[in-house]
């Protein structure tokens, strides 16, 4: 429990200085989208059904700070990974195929049960209602992270992240509205720092700026191809205080690609991809990479 509190405190201390934060999630299931989904509104409502049916099992964050040093990589990355086990799960669906896939990709069901962090919606934190009591109580600290991200207006980054965004809102803020336009309005109301998607940016670089290597926009392929164009280690690096996660080989500096689909690792790789994409866009507009994100008049919500 002390280790969990230390991890959360470490994140909270870094959030105010973060230029962007990547979030990645793993779920207990994802439904195939029916052929009737033809519009963005249809798509949002189909995703809403997923969010309401399935549990959040793991959440990863990667905080990115910017260095002005001429002797090191510009982006310093601080990844975190948490198993999530809500004490208020009553009738959530767990798809067998999804659980088998997660297990085959390194997800530990034992750790999920034993170490999973409890969480509630921000609106429920002051409720006097009696919640479901689990066999083992666990500290609830993830809501402090989400609250701080909102208060400091930190830009958020995802990879193919619409489902992640909706889960983030539903699990940590409140129930998703019924209408698509209201969903969009609520998302933009809370996450005013901006939302970016590395898959969308990769497609833009391929289609509009003729970066032919970026035809495939899966996360592993984006990383591989961007790394072949620009040495990632010269753009972004893992912070020393997070090196115990073993996301990089200590001898070669290469990524541990066996960890793909761990939420924290995927958030880390997404942060590296986004750092490289920012570099390309910054050179196109003759800006420093961090200037593309520094559009907030005041960092903390409520300050004028």
From TrEMBL:
Coiled coil: none
One Pfam family it belongs to: CAF1
Residue ranges of the TM segments: none
UniProt cross-references to SUPFAM superfamilies, sorted A to Z: Ribonuclease H-like
Listed GO MF terms: 3'-5'-RNA exonuclease activity; RNA binding
Similarity comment: Belongs to the CAF1 family.
Protein name: Uncharacterized protein
Gene source species: Theileria orientalis
């Amino acid at each position: 429990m002390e280790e969990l509190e230390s991890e959360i405190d470490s994140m909270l201390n870094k959030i105010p200085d973060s230029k962007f934060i990547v979030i990645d999630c793993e779920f207990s299931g994802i439904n195939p989208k029916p052929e009737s989904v033809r519009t963005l509104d249809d798509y949002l409502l189909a995703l809403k059904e997923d969010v309401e049916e399935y549990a959040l099992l793991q959440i990863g964050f990667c905080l990115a700070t910017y260095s002005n040093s001429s002797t090191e990589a510009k982006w310093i990355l601080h990844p975190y990974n948490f198993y999530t086990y809500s004490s208020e799960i009553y009738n959530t669906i767990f798809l067998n195929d999804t659980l088998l896939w997660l297990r085959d990709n390194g997800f530990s069901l034992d750790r999920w049960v034993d170490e999973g962090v409890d969480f509630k919606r921000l609106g429920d934190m002051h409720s006097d209602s009696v919640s479901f009591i689990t066999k083992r109580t666990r500290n609830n600290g993830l809501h402090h992270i989400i609250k701080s991200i909102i208060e400091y207006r930190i830009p958020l980054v995802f990879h193919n992240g619409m489902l992640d965004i909706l889960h983030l809102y539903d699990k940590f803020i409140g129930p998703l509205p019924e209408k698509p336009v209201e969903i969009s309005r609520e998302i933009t109301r809370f996450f005013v720092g901006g939302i970016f998607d590395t898959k969308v940016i990769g497609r833009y670089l391929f289609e509009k700026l003729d970066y032919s290597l970026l035809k495939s926009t899966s996360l592993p392929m984006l990383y591989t191809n961007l790394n072949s164009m620009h040495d990632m280690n010269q753009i972004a690096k893992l912070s020393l205080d997070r090196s115990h996660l073993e996301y990089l080989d200590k001898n070669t500096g290469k990524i541990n690609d066996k960890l793909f689909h761990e939420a924290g690792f995927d958030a880390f790789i997404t942060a590296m991809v986004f750092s490289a994409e920012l570099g390309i866009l910054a050179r196109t507009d003759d800006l420093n990479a961090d200037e593309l994100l520094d559009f907030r008049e005041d960092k903390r919500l409520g300050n004028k």
